[in-house]
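The data are quoted verbatim for completeness:
=====
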Amino acid sequence: MKTAKLLATSMHVLGAVALSGCVHGNAQPSPPTQPDLGLRVKEAIAIDGLQFRDADGDGQLSPYEDWRLSPEERAIDLAGRMTQAEKVGTLMHSTMPGLGGELGRADSYDLEALGALVSDKHVTSYITRLTLAPAQLAEQNNLAQEVAAGGRLGIPLTISTDPRNHFSYVLGAAEAGSGTTQWPELLGFAALRDPALVREFGEIARREYRALGIHMALSPQLDLLTEPRWPRGSGTFGSQAELSSELGGAYVESFQGSANGLQADGVMTVVKHWVGYGAQPEGFEAHNYYGRFADPGDYLSQHIAAFDGALEAKSAGIMPAYPILRDATLNGEAIEAVSPGYSAQLLDGLLRQRRGYEGIILSDWAITRDCNERCMNPTDEAPQRPQDIATSWGVEGLTVQQRYVKGVQAGIDQFGGTDDVLPLLAAMEAGEIDEARVDQSVIRVMVPKFQLGLFENPYVSPAAATAAIGGAEDIAKADRLQRESQVLLRNEGTTLPFSPGAKVWLQGMSHDAAQSAGLQVVEDIADADFAIVRTDTPSEMLHPNHFFGSRYKEGRLNFEPGDPAYEALAQANAAGVPTMLAIFLDRPAVLTDVLPLTDVILANFGASDAAVLDVALGRAEARGRLPFELPRSMEAVRAQDPAAPDDSADPLYPYGAGL
């Protein structure tokens, strides 16, 4: 049996380690360094003056409890001690239950529900969606780890998060931090094109995550923003594969603590979404049934190349995309019409075999669930609810059990957003999945827990979390990047900088922020020395009854009469007041119709009002360049190829524009 061979190899390796001190003559091995142990639930074992956490509570030192051994040796030993049910639970990456909240959003964890997940379903990996103050979140994560420590084998939890250091928030896709430093979206780093700045951010975010008790970042997003209507572009490094690869590698290095893989003080990265996600026709998002296709066409190789830097830096995890790659080929062979999480060609073939990837493949959320009528065709009377979210694109005709089998055979190690263990357990018991294949995934999931020291001490100090997060020096760095990553697209004559102490008329900006900057806010445009209109890229709500359709921006990118920002710009222009459009380019906007109404256009990718005002008043310099082109018209947008970077006809502002 393959499992038996695996364990035999394990014991051989352990024996070799035990004898290794005898083969160097008089050389003495370095004494082991005792790690701090977290002993809130079970006791320690004392051997030769050293302490080891008795994770399974049997009073004996098992190899997986011995921190002197390598993470790989410990993981192999642990896998051999696990039941089939415990192995299946390891292949789930669920949502930390919130007490009375939606999709895990709450003021605290539901520890009773978590206890059932740990003891009955054996799940030890979870995404957290709490957004509490640092000390509170650290304490909640400690309480969750205490629950896990009481399990049969005492396996600590791996706690993951969506990005929480930026400006965008979408329930189920991006988090809002509380107390963490706030940086531009990844597009802002792409605007500055400097890997050192990505590393500066990553080192701070890594420290913040670990202080909170978070071990895995479900980021960075290395999809290419090639379809300008696609709503997830703000989380990317823009439209160009080479830049995305370079900055993605810097992100992985800084979060994980090394250019050569995960370090003990690091945070696992899960780069996403492998692959072709940004090439979605009309920008319709693949969380939704109506957006379940992508058309990478002749540009698939570029979408793949965007991941090169992250893979070279040995990202601990990678997440397959949602959409079916329609009419796509790989090495001259048609790609099966299933989402990448079910594609053996894209996972086992391209990623594992050709690219040599050895980390965790974690599916995106809900790919095994059935898409019911509310998922496919929600109505005003029956809108899609959280429990109706499903993304089993291309395998709708399979049973849930068959989907698990196909996913594991394709290369998945963990299934995201689920703790539905029974179908996978039934497949194992029926011999539909080789247990040795499951052991591979179990070991891949366990190795990082050992690398990060979680088996010794998964707890964090709430007081230290408060001290480590949101320090003045870190905030100053984040604030600087909010300012420098802005892009000055238009500055007629000598409009900027505006004069401090002048009178300003505002739309879409805090009066308090302007007053704090030394400006006088007026209500009548006729009294103003200049005007600032702040807004986002225009959008429409085309699918209000879909859960994510109601949360993601869709549709047009151009300003039209009737839009509040358009009307404000027209009002200021009619009054003859120098006017600045400050726009958050969460998607590439079409600015042609508002260009004549502006004297200044200042774009940002996540910036506070204070950061925008500092640039407007000449107290900071906007150094960014566009990380994508801005099309001239919606006709040009509709005519372009959703997979091709920056290919619209005669763009108003090309890639790299900026004064």
Summary: Residues 1-161 form one domain. The chain is about 35% helix and 10% strand. Confidence is low (pLDDT under 50) at residues 7-26.
